[in-house]
Amino acid sequence: MGMTQMVPLTLDYREAVNMPDHQLRQAIAEYKVAVIKCRDAALEPYVDLMKRLGKPVHHILENFCLTHYREVLTISNVYEKGAPLGVHDGGAYWHTDMSYKQANTVLTSMLSVKVPDTSGETEFIDCVSGLQRVRSWMKTGECPDFIKELNLDSLQASHRFGNRDALRNADAKSQVLEKTQRDAMEAQVLHPLVIQHPLTGAHALYAAAATSFGITGWPDEFARQVLDTLFDFLLLHAPRYKHHYQRGDIVIWDNLSTLHRGPVIPKSEGGRDARLLYRMNVDFNEGLHHG
């Protein structure tokens, strides 16, 4: 089948702020990824824009959230006196944000403040087109029998914070939580493996990487084999988009329809190799009630 290019929605900042809230929310859901080009990298207009799209969702890593904007998380490879100023490479693996929460109708956004000379991109997989390709593959002789026999629409996957790939790959990245952060997490949540988007009606293969650790009613080892096989297929055949940031870019993506990953990037002392982004999550389902 091969891999094709995923095309994001691209808007000027002025175009985005002049759109009605419901129209902008719908456009992001349909395109799955939106790139808003802005000449500035100011926090206040960024936060205001995201609040129009939904209710802020605070991140579990509170130690990296801004003092005056607790809903904003710092993403950075910069270290001072050996300590990171933000989340460094905790997201440098394929995953879906907030899939470990019951309320998973979440948009993620990044405001680009400092762009390193090399690397620093965010990469996306289209899980709507990916599901369509999985269904076509399941009808071919190339698909393993244990996948062909599945009724994907009937399956419930169990999710928790972490990276399932670490169970088969010793070099896999993962974000380490402190005990108090682990204690504050929901122990395990269930989501359909095939999810229907409440805004577009489209079906997607939901969060097949990282946080999905099992399938209801199945032995863990077999469930992981199924999830790994489906994810490996997406990796090879689903459309992708890689965003190369410029200062002031606001990138927003719909977590119901995508997987994403950040780069593996070296530590910086704040020079030309420094990366700094501000991340904010909002629950667009909450936004439907006031936009």
From TrEMBL:
The keyword Cytoplasm does not apply. Residues 12-263 form the TauD/TfdA-like domain. InterPro entries: TauD-like_sf, TauD/TfdA-like, TfdA_dioxygenase. Pfam families: TauD (PF02668). GO terms for molecular function: 2-oxoglutarate-dependent dioxygenase activity; metal ion binding. Keywords: Dioxygenase, Iron, Metal-binding, Oxidoreductase. Belongs to the TfdA dioxygenase family. This is Taurine catabolism dioxygenase TauD.
